[in-house]
């Protein structure tokens, strides 16, 4: 009865660890004691270079763990687990004669100094790139791996495999969400996700910054509002249209000019997130529109070399192009770059020929097309 209770608690600990990776060391501790060991680890082994990365450990000396990862892992005879079928339980003596194992460098220089005499392990997961291995180490008091140890290992291994798989799925989803949030926060614009009534569902770091610096936006009672009362109604009409689907607002959304109390000008781009297809499928989504708010100024491209590559521009031609966009006329660009006006005009003529532009405004539009909403 006691053993059954321990096993039941162990299985629960494993699935808890699948949802919260911080619980893996404690779960491995319980697992190690149940199987009959004093230390445990789940590691990833790269097939190409046999490099080892310890995902989770229990009872491992940090110094010797680092030595294993950096040096002795490549001498570990139990690496043969790479060749065994998934879920096949094996000990050091299953891989090679025990006397031969004790004579090897791995045992003499790494295992014996810690008091380890044997180990039992199995492949948890296997792919073309590498394998995930579970290992339990036993000291002198526990002795060599026996049938009881193998039986206990086989008993819990399916749960370890399922927990590891569940954990991988959850971590992948969490990573995707985190990446998306980081992308939002990296936008060179404030982002607000709102529902059909204008209630804010999410605000990016840039959005919080805009609110703090006195932009023409406010969040009042949870709703996104604007300082200019004349804009308030059209903006919320767009939110309502977004809730009705892409067809009503248009897949490309709509832009609204905004003006802050201090005179600074901004542009709000409202893009629909709810589509007719999703509504017809019976799905409901809280956020129906993404509102991107940025200052009404031209951003230079994140990578000017992209323009140079696209139109085969020389470095000087690129400097003149950016100068026209940033500074203005030929005299000002010549003065800023420290070159003659005739030289600027020559490069400008080349720019027109290479890009197909006919006037300065066309060059500005060209650069704007390469502008990125992401911060460098």
Multimer state: single chain
Rg over CA atoms, rounded to whole Å, is: 32 Å
**What's the main sheet like?**
5 strands, antiparallel
CATH structural architecture of the largest domain: 2-Layer Sandwich
Domains (count): 3
Distance between the termini: 62 Å
CATH topology of the largest domain: Beta-Lactamase
Strand order of the largest sheet: 2-1-5-4-3
SSE sequence, one letter per element: HHEEHEHHHEEHEEHEEHHEEHEHHHHH
For this structure, what is the CATH class of the largest domain? Alpha Beta
Mean pLDDT: 79
- Unreliable parts: 275-284, 372-376
Gross morphology: elongated
Beta strand %: 15-25%
Question: Number of DSSP helices?
Answer: 16
CATH H-tier superfamily of the largest domain: Transcription factor LuxR-like, autoinducer-binding domain
Helix content, binned percent: 40-55%
According to DSSP, the number of beta strands is 12
Query: Which structural class should the secondary elements be placed in?
Result: alpha+beta
Structure notes:
The chain is an alpha+beta fold and 376 residues long. It folds into three domains: 177 residues, Beta-Lactamase (2-Layer Sandwich), CATH 3.30.450; 109 residues, PAS domain (Beta-Lactamase); 66 residues, Arc Repressor Mutant, subunit A (Orthogonal Bundle), CATH 1.10.10. 48% of the residues lie in helices and 20% in strands. The strands form three sheets. The protein has a five-stranded antiparallel beta sheet with strand order 2-1-5-4-3, sandwiched between helices. A five-stranded antiparallel beta sheet has the order 7-6-12-11-10. A two-stranded antiparallel sheet has the order 8-9. A hairpin with a 2-residue loop joins strand 8 and strand 9. Helix 13 packs across helix 14. It is elongated.
């Amino acid at each position: 009865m006691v053993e059954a209770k321990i096993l039941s608690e162990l299985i629960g600990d494993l699935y808890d660890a699948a949802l919260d990776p911080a619980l893996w060391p404690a779960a491995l501790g319980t697992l190690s004691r149940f199987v009959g060991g004093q230390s445990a680890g789940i590691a990833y082994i790269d097939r190409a270079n046999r490099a080892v990365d310890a995902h989770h450990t229990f009872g491992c000396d940090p110094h010797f763990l680092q030595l294993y990862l950096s040096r002795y892992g490549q001498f570990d005879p139990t690496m043969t687990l790479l060749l065994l079928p998934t879920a096949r339980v094996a000990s050091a003596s299953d891989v090679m004669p025990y006397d031969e194992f004790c004579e090897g460098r791995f045992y003499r220089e790494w295992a014996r100094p810690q008091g380890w005499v044997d180990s039992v392990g199995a492949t948890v997961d296997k792919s073309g790139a590498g394998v995930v291995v579970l290992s339990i180490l036993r000291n002198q008091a526990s002795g060599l791996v026996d049938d009881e140890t193998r039986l206990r290992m086989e008993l819990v291994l399916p749960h370890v495999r399922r927990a590891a798989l569940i954990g991988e799925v959850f971590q992948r989803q969490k990573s995707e969400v985190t990446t998306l949030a980081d992308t939002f926060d990296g936008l060179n614009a404030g982002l607000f996700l709102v529902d059909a009534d204008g209630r804010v569902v999410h605000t990016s770091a840039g959005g919080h910054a805009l609110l703090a610096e006195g932009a023409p936006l406010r969040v009042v009672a949870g709703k996104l509002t604007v300082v200019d009362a004349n804009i308030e109604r059209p903006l919320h009409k767009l939110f309502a249209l977004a809730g009705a689907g892409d067809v009503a607002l248009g897949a490309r959304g709509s832009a609204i000019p905004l003006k802050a109390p201090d005179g600074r000008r901004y542009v709000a781009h409202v893009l629909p997130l709810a589509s007719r297809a999703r509504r017809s499928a019976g799905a409901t989504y809280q956020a129906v529109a993404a509102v991107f708010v940025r200052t009404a100024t031209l951003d230079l491209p994140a990578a000017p070399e992209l323009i140079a590559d696209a139109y085969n521009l020389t470095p000087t031609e690129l400097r003149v192009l950016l100068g026209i966009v940033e500074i203005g006329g030929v005299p000002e660009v010549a003065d800023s770059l420290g070159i003659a006006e005739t030289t600027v005009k020559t490069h400008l003529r080349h720019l027109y020929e290479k890009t197909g532009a006919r006037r300065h405004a066309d060059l500005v539009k060209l650069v704007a097309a390469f502008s990125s909403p992401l911060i460098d």
